[in-house]
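Q: Got a minute? One more chain.
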Amino acid sequence: MPITGKPWYRILYIQVLIGVALGIGIGAFFPELGKSLKPLGDAFIKLVKMMIAPIIFCTVVHGIASMGDMKKLGRVGFKTLLYFEIVSTIALLIGLVVVNILRPGEGFNIDPASLDPALSIGYAQKAKGHSMVDFFLNIIPTTIFSPFFNGDLLQILFISIMMAFAISLMGERAKPILDVIDTTSKVFFNLMNIVVKFAPLGAFGAMGFTIGNYGLGALGKLLELMLGFYITSALFIFIVLGSISWWAGFSIFRYLSFIKEEILLVLGTSSSETALPGMMEKSIKLGCSPSTVGLVIPSGYSFNLDGTNIYLCMAAVFLAQATNTPLDLGQQITLLLVAMISSKGSSGVTGAGFITLAATLATVPSIPIESLSLLIGIDRFMSECRAITNLIGNGVATVVISRWEGELTKEQLNECLQK
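A: Always. Here it is, folded:
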């Protein structure tokens, strides 16, 4: 560890790894004790979420209002949505292809009538009312302050962009306001740096609860789906995102090393939101402009969920295979198109990956909704992979859009990644 000049035990990602390992050990050998550690993970996630709204608001408002070029904002927004749609579609296609090749659900021969519908009905009910119309209407908050209380990322982004436009119209009179916002942003980032020091404790508690509650040995044949999902996500990261990174002039391996603390944080907490402030700060350190970072990363949490997209297709087809429900090519394409919409329509919903799957199955009635209960026991383990893939996808997107905009050169980027 000579690069940092710190003893190995003081390096954050090493501490997080130790926390995860200890959590697994406690959960496996002392499951009741592991279950009791849940408040540690919950408390850490709440601390981080407490900081997300003000950090996004300050970063986006200062970045856009200081830009002075509203045409650039529209151009960056268009490029971002175009990139998101292309890459998200590739993720869906990969999930669909792999699950048809591996066929992990084949041989289950589950009779849907034997499943308890009560286990899945709650998720199905939550999935209702999250149509695209509801999604767009939900972007507009009830009051200007309500997004800061409910933590809805898209509502915060909406308010931030509107506020940035209002400030930019003030011209020179806006400078004192921007100075205050910039200083406030630095205060919250410093506060975030303090909170992140508790990440090993949060990871320890979250992992202890997960293993203690669900166990390691009771997963049975469902491990095939988990393994297939993890392999598919890895292929997507190293081949698809790796190719995009190479095209943009940087190595995916160096980038993953650069954000290793954030990856381990997500691994320990199963929530990509815990790493959002850190990802924004590191993207700015790489040379991406604050306005691009503030636009791409928060919007990516709704429009660029690569891991969730892979999961949707694989899980839906898996349930069809497990219940011996035939799906022809046309039905699978329909499933893909529905997943493209429902993955965005569930933004901001707690447990979004599983609820989105319920919404997708509800529109493909040939797959029994009761079969959702098969996945409840392993969803926590799969959510970690979903969250990590989503995190990496949004990080790569931010760097690519910044390179596309000419905000940083290939040489500057690689110099930062090697530090």
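A: The mean pLDDT is 79.
Q: Perfect, thanks.
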